[in-house]
Amino acid sequence: MRIIKDTQIDFMSQSRFAAFISGALILAGIISLGINKGPNLSIDFKGGSMVAVNYTEPVDINEVRSALSNVSIDGQNFDFSQVEIKHFGDESNVAVRLPTLEDEPEQFLQKFVSNMKNIFPALIPENENDFILSIEKVGPKIGAELSGKAVMAILSALALILVYISIRFEFKYAVGAIVALTHDVVVTLGIFSILGYEVSLAVIAAFLTIVGYSLNDTIVIFDRIRENVKSLKGVTMPQVVNQSINESLSRTIVTSLTTFFVVFILYLYGGEVIHHFAFAMIIGVLVGTYSSVFVASPIVVSMASES
């Protein structure tokens, strides 16, 4: 079933405007990454500890921050007022991200949790086991290793895609696809930086999923372009690309909307744990659909004109 039939949209005439939009998004992301000194990496990559606790009623983050400005553990005083403290799920749950300490006291996290209990002693659940939602700890060495593997995973995926599309299509199609996929990841990473969202292992998984999803859209359009190049004689490359995109437009929109609705529901009701994953997927679906039309295709037209 085709929802949109017989469209005659001149997509290639809008390629300059699209290039301006993409450039503005990428530039904004790069500026944000520069100001923030890189992406906001989670403890998966930076190392440290994450403690999430549950109070029986909503609590004020500022009160928690004030109480953590002077924490005494085994005779040592710590100021944790500047660490990341946020609500986790709802306002009765609090998550605190702690840096790696050089001279960490024994059973530090358990004693830190005891200090969290003392902040609001009247709001502790009757079953104290319900107070601790989660405790995560990652060493700095493991974090650095995971960072390297995450970067290698994305670069390896792009390299293999370059080889695959060069074999299945032509090199100019491979260049268009790689630029579009890189565009999608950079734009998504930039939006995460602007919003101050954490980049965790789950978000890296979302980036790789975005690469695969965007590539699927791009290959459908490229396949139609290749068929039309053979069947349409005496037609310019921009006209061939426009017709190819129009012919596959209904399929692209239906697929994108279906995926978007799923990840949007996941974003709304999936819980705090996969919140950032779902958000990355939402951005990826939108940007990936856009880049298949306005990034990958214009590059193919440009390289075909040069040859």
The CATH first-level class of the largest domain comes to Mainly Alpha
Assign the structural class, choosing from mainly alpha, mainly beta, alpha/beta, alpha+beta, or little secondary structure.
alpha+beta
Low-confidence stretches: none
| Fourth-level CATH superfamily of the largest domain | Multidrug efflux transporter AcrB transmembrane domain
Shape: elongated
CATH topology of the largest domain: Multidrug efflux transporter AcrB transmembrane fold
The count of helical stretches stands at 9
> Rg from C-alpha positions?
24 Å
Task: Report strand order across the widest sheet.
Answer: 5-6-2-7
What is the total domain count?
2
In whole angstroms, how far apart are the ends?
A: 37 Å
Percent strand equals 5-15%
Q: H/E series, N to C?
A: HEHEHEEEEHEHHEHHH
The averaged pLDDT comes out at: 85
Q: How can the largest sheet be summarized?
A: 4 strands, antiparallel
Estimate percent helicity: 55-70%
Tell me how many strands there are: 8
CATH architecture designation of the largest domain: Up-down Bundle
